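As described in the Methods, two query proteins were run sequentially through the folding procedure within a single session, without resetting any intermediate state between them. The first query and its resulting structure tokens are shown here.
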Amino acid sequence: MLEQSNNNEQPVIPDKRYFTIGEVSDLCGVKPHVLRYWEQEFSELSPSKRRGNRRYYQRHEVLLIRQIRELLYEQGYTIGGARAHMASESKEGIGHCQQLICQMIADLEDISDLLK
């Protein structure tokens, strides 16, 4: 486990397309074996694998790992609880996006009527 005293600040994510498991480990404060385990537990986390089964993470996956880490280590969720929390957040986000899309459609229809 990590010491709780130095978990608050995490380094800035560099502007790169792909990150190795070692880089992600340093950026997120999680050991590589924990990252490999989380891949099995969280279906959203699936880095691409290349030569020799090496993992390459993208920026959105690094952000996801930081979110998982916060839920597990700082908020005290279990893995199942973190998985459920992330699923409910995802559903809420989709609902919010649908509302925004409906509002934009209504606005575009109003603009279309004004132009006619």
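Immediately afterward, the second query was submitted; its sequence and tokens are:
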Amino acid sequence: MVLTIRNERGEEIARKLVGVGAMLPDEQRTFTLSVEMNPASAGGKRTWH
């Protein structure tokens, strides 16, 4: 699975390959995605994590 993260302008800022293992034709995988956000720091500076 390829996970692509884009900013507000649609520009790609990160791309990660996530292995899901080998699958047989009758197998399925389930994915859960969670996003954690922190409030912006004071001073208006942007920090990248």
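The chain has no helices and two strands. We note this only descriptively and draw no conclusion about the first query from it.
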